[in-house]
Write a structure and sequence with these properties.
The protein is an alpha/beta fold and about 450 residues long. It contains 13 helices and 15 strands. The protein has 2 domains: about 160 residues, Aspartate Aminotransferase, domain 1; about 250 residues, Type I PLP-dependent aspartate aminotransferase-like (Major domain) (Aspartate Aminotransferase, domain 2, 3-Layer(aba) Sandwich), CATH 3.40.640.10. About 40% of the residues lie in helices and about 15% in strands. About 50% of the residues are buried.
Length: about 450
């Protein structure tokens, strides 16, 4: 029995089944954009720990910062004693991610915790209860976050859920349907305004929470006109606009924040994943006048803003700045989009290519019909990729999307090799490629 097989068997004996397992892959070590399993097999990593390792595995500056901070202060709790790394990281975040004239931040441990705290802030700031979210959304697995999350398979048997949550269709723009972004925006904004008349009273809506690019939902990108209209509607009715930037943040879309592509500032935003360089840390960043409406004692937690995690985050952000990872992400995204677009032209089962920056995805459907998503084909392709030395993971409510979340430090050669493996795997499981340009 291999070392990987042995570890999987041990896991099955002691780890509960509710902690999902995508494959029999194991992890022994990692560096840059390469993961090595317990049997010394190397893999190009297009998953990045689900969008966590933008700065790469084992960055020396990040590891050094962790070691140095661990030798000084492992834990104190920000509620008991104020320490330098927490304050310094908040200073860095409000400078990097300004929310209007004055910005404040708070730190917790996970994206779900950031979402929970953002909702609490919005409710206290407005004195209202209602929250509007969207189909395809993923905001985490805690109670409020699970309520906001759309994918039913993540929620089976977990109710009753939090009250006063209302879900509307995400403003999907489908190129295969010839959708107009402006028309979709007008339609969905009209639907939202209608919901404020017949579903939930405007005066009871505390917040609207939106992923500008949906993560688990399949990398759907919100159209510019819709986001602009959302900002105007929230201003009109005193609703707090929250952008969930947990997966989009810190260089993934080619900017620090996906919102920078839109030129629109939210009232609050949530951050996690690649912010910590591999350690668990998250943040809520927002307009000071809204953040300060939360009563003392209602936010945070014992481990929120742990000093070692703060040191890792500070080192990670500095490395992103010095390596120019935003620019690197934009270049990677262009290359991935070009490659996926060429595959779509040849392969009938590929029905969409979408994303923003280096947050790119490719969608698969039976007989080229988006109304029949093909999760089985997607899983077969992912398995073949893994056999060939590439880690990719699925997304989408129907599980028929492959997403790319490779570390942004990946070399050009590694990126090209990974894309070649993915293309070869797609070819093995799809119909004979059509002639170039056959899709029109």
């Amino acid at each position: 029995m291999s070392m990987s097989d042995n570890l999987i068997r041990r896991r099955e004996r002691v780890v509960c089944a509710g902690v999902s397992r995508m494959s029999d892959l194991t992890a022994g070590s990692a560096s840059g954009a390469t993961l090595v399993d317990l049997d010394a097999r190397s893999f190009i990593d297009f998953a990045g720990g689900i969008g966590v390792m933008n700065v790469g595995h084992g960055d020396e500056a990040v590891v050094r910062a962790i070691r140095e901070q661990a030798g000084e202060l492992l834990h104190a709790s920000i509620h008991v004693a104020t320490y330098e790394p927490y304050v310094e990281l908040c200073e860095k975040l409000v400078g990097l991610l300004p929310h209007g004239k004055s910005t404040k931040a708070m730190l917790v441990n996970t994206g779900a915790e950031a979402v929970e705290n953002a909702i609490k802030i919005a409710r206290q700031a407005t004195g209202r209860a209602g929250v509007i979210c969207f189909t395809g959304a993923f905001h985490g697995r805690t109670l409020m976050a699970t309520t906001l999350t759309s994918k039913v398979s993540y929620k089976v048997g977990c109710g009753p859920f939090a009250p006063e949550v209302y879900r509307l269709p995400y403003p999907l723009v489908r190129q295969d349907r010839g959708d107009s972004a402006d028309e979709v925006s007008r339609r969905e904004l009209a639907r939202l305004r209608s919901a404020l008349r017949d579903t939930v009273e405007t005066g009871n809506v505390a917040a609207i929470i939106l992923e500008l690019v949906q993560g688990e939902g399949g990398f759907n990108v919100a159209p510019q006109a819709y986001v602009r209209g959302l900002r105007e509607l929230c201003d009109e009715h005193g609703i707090v606009l929250i952008f969930d930037e947990v997966q989009t943040g810190f260089g993934r879309t080619g900017r620090w924040a996906a919102s920078e592509h839109y030129g629109i500032t939210p009232d609050l935003s949530t951050w996690a994943k690649s912010m910590g360089g591999g350690l668990p840390i998250s943040a809520v960043v927002g307009k000071a006048e809204i953040m300060d409406r939360a009563a003392p004692g209602t936010l945070g937690g014992t481990y929120g803003g742990n000093p070692v995690a703060c040191a890792a985050a500070l080192a990670t952000i500095r490395r992103m700045e010095s390596l120019g990872l935003n620019e690197r992400a934009a270049q990677q995204g262009d290359r991935i989009r070009e490659r996926f677009g060429a595959i779509m032209q040849r392969v009938p089962e590929v029905t969409d290519v979408r994303g923003l920056g280096a947050m790119m995805a490719i969608e698969f459907s039976r007989n080229g019909d988006p109304e029949h998503p093909d999760a089985a084909l997607t899983n077969d392709i992912i398995a073949t990729c893994r056999e060939s030395g590439l880690i990719v993971i699925p997304a989408g409510v129907d599980g028929n999307v492959i997403r790319v979340l490779a570390p942004l430090v990946i070399t050009d050669a590694e990126l090209e090799r990974g894309l070649a493996i993915l293309e070869e795997s797609i070819s093995k499981h799809t119909t004979q490629p059509a002639q170039a340009g056959a899709k029109g």
